[in-house]
Design a protein that fits this description.
1 helix; 79 residues; alpha+beta; 5 strands; 5-stranded antiparallel beta sheet
């Protein structure tokens, strides 16, 4: 997880630049970032969707929740 406090701008209206990633066996499974030109978005098992940034705390909570849900799913599939 990397979260930087940056000046508010058109590209980063929240005042944060961030990149959070969960990697398994060298493959990105979950990621949240706000790359310039792309805005706030979320990666989940290859799919990409817009993400509504509310706060840095909520961002971290959403990321952790996705990881826990993924781990439960994988554990369920391995039974």
């Amino acid at each position: 997880m990397k979260i930087w406090k940056v000046p508010v701008s058109q590209n980063r209206p929240s005042g944060f630049k961030y990149s959070l990633v969960y990697i398994v066996n060298g493959k990105r499974i979950i990621g949240y970032d706000n790359e310039t030109g792309r805005g706030d978005h979320r990666h989940y098992e290859g799919a990409v969707e817009d993400y509504r940034f509310e706060s840095a705390i909520q961002l971290v909570n959403d990321f952790k929740k996705d990881i826990l849900n993924y781990m439960k799913k994988v554990k369920g599939e391995s039974k």
